[in-house]
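re: ur msg from earlier - yeah i can do the zinc ion complex, just paste it... oh wait u already did. ok heres what im feeding in:
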Amino acid sequence: MVIIEALYSMFANKCTRCHKGDIFEEKNPYKLGKMFKMHETCNHCHLKYDREPGFFYGAMYVSYALTVGWFIIWFALQSYVFQWSTTVFLTAFISFLVLSSPLTLRWSRIIWLNIFFRYHKEYERKDAAYSDDLKEACK
Ligand SMILES: [Zn+2]
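and the outut:
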């Protein structure tokens, strides 16, 4: 279930803790002017996304893992389906990486947030962020 919850927040751009508030200001990752704009806190459960200065540097490791995953998929397709020349393969793969980079950036940050803040159904309640009992229960 943890993976399904993480996938939901990745694809829907929703807070990893409550699945209600948006993480990024712009829903479309390909509006490049607002690609990095994130809300400071969740507008539903008030989770502060940027926990400390440099918090999202860790998302670079996730981004690296995603890129390696893309390469494995592309290499398998190349080996068993396409069988292009090396030049064509590298051109196609690098083009894919450039075109998918806004999505990779967004997903890596959301996956990074999911590592630290798991979904809790109780936070779907609007008043949950102010409940001390709930804060203790969800630690
Ligand atoms: Zn939230």
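cool cool. The chain has four helices and no strands. ping me if u need the other ligands too
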